[in-house]
# Entry
Amino acid sequence: MIGRMVFRSPVERVMPNRLAGERDALTQQLDFHRATLLSKLEGLDDESLRRPMTASGVSLLGLVKHLAETEHGWFVKIYARLPEADLYSTDDDPDAEFRVGPDETADALVGQYLRTCERARAVVAAGGLDDMVPTPWGAEVNLRAILVHMVQETARHNGHADIIREAIDGVTGD
# Structure
């Protein structure tokens, strides 16, 4: 990778306060896992970041795209009920959130992820954990459940990122 640009995470991974109250515990855990995702990209070049590493074609940048789409969906579209389109997926291409196109850069995808996370933080800060909203499939959900889901979703995909990263260059970590 000498001579090639490598990814450097623009965020610091901060351990959550193990004695925090409920809201802080949930948001700190989510921020920890968000930063963990980006740490999995650390030191890799663009080719490695976009390389499909599973039979389904998932790459590290594909996971970043998917999690940006998921944060946008849960916090902006469902919880805040803003009538916005998905970030990447369309009716014609519902799996676009997992694929990295040739014109999509790591900087642009990570930038979108960071902006989406910041927007989600603002939505969460303005809401109450018990505030209930309808989902598109007819169930109701509260902000607490959305936060728990996003911690779980992000942590699960960090496990995928661990496996992908190890397959790329042998690097493992927490």
The first helix runs from residue 22 to 39. Residues 106 and 173 are 21 Å apart (CA to CA).
